[in-house]
């Protein structure tokens, strides 16, 4: 029993340490992402925690941000769609980047890419949560600073993802930019293939259902 408790405490301490490491990484991205992967400073548990926090804050942002900055209609809000808008592009982006960088001599694995992306979302967690409260105390005229801070959050996350791509795959800046563009194109291709697949599946079901109805109508 004591051994199990020690293991749980050690795992919890390691999780806290790897989660705290995100604070260092967002201000020292080049060394941070290198050590995240090669020195094992990060963990999947911490990456998943950051992702879950990002999703929670995304939902809270829609629901609790002042209506002057975000139009919120309770009757039209769907929490599953809200979460899907973040999770699906992230998943497709990781797969697309992994597929393309494998062809372009990238050194990162799918796990490394996922961890890099999740750790890159740390500024969103740190800034967007206080911005929810800030939106409810500033005036419309002062809201321009809220909008600037909102844009800064996404720019910061985007730059961190670019740094992650450079360090994880051992790319130069130019090659990382090309890989980012190729990843975006790859995401569009994957989305097209998924939509085409489901379209074919739905057409197939519709065909067999209509065939069954025709047979049932003729023989019964």
Textual characterization of the structure:
This protein is mostly helical. The protein has one domain. The protein has eight helices and no strands. It has helices at 2-25, 29-38, 44-64, 79-103, 110-120, 122-135, 143-169, 173-219. The N and C termini lie far apart (68 Å). 24% of the residues are buried. The mean pLDDT is 85.
Query: Topology as H/E string?
Result: HHHHHHHH
Range of helix content: over 70%
The residue-averaged pLDDT reads: 85
The N- and C-terminal alpha carbons lie at a distance of: 68 Å
Structure classification: mainly alpha
Please describe the biggest sheet, giving its number of strands, its sense, and whether it closes into a barrel.
Answer: none
- Tally of distinct domains: 1
Q: Give the oligomeric state of the chains in this entry, treating copies of one chain as homo and distinct chains as hetero.
A: single chain
State the low-pLDDT regions, or none.
Answer: none
**Annotation, overall tally of beta strands:** 0
Characterize the overall form.
globular
Q: What percent strand?
A: under 5%
Number of helical segments with 4 or more residues: 8
- Using the CA coordinates, give the radius of gyration: 22 Å
Which terms summarize this structure?
0% strand, 220 residues
Short structural summary:
This protein is mostly helical.
Describe the protein's topology.
Elements: H1 2-25, H2 29-38, H3 44-64, H4 79-103, H5 110-120, H6 122-135, H7 143-169, H8 173-219
Helix pairs in contact: 1-2, 1-3, 2-7, 3-5, 3-6, 4-5, 4-8, 5-7, 6-7, 7-8
């Amino acid at each position: 029993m004591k051994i199990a408790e020690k293991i749980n405490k050690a795992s919890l301490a390691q999780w806290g340490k790897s989660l705290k490491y995100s604070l260092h990484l967002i201000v020292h991205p080049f060394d941070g992402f290198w050590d995240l992967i090669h020195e094992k400073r990060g963990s999947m548990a911490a990456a998943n925690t950051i992702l879950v926090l990002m999703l929670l804050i995304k939902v809270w942002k829609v629901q609790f941000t002042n209506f002057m900055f975000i139009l919120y209609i309770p009757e039209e809000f769907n929490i599953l769609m809200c979460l899907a808008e973040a999770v699906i592009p992230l998943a497709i982006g990781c797969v697309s980047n992994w597929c393309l960088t494998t062809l372009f001599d990238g050194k990162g694995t799918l796990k490394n890419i996922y961890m890099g992306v999740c750790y890159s979302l740390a500024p969103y967690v740190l800034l967007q949560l206080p911005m929810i409260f800030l939106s409810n105390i500033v005036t419309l005229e002062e809201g321009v600073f809220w909008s600037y801070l909102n844009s800064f959050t996404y720019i910061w996350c985007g730059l961190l993802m670019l740094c992650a791509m450079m360090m994880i795959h051992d790319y130069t800046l130019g090659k990382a930019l090309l890989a980012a563009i190729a990843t975006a194109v790859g995401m569009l291709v994957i989305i097209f293939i998924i939509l085409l697949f489901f379209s074919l599946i739905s057409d197939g079901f519709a065909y067999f259902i209509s065939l069954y109805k025709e047979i049932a109508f003729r023989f019964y």
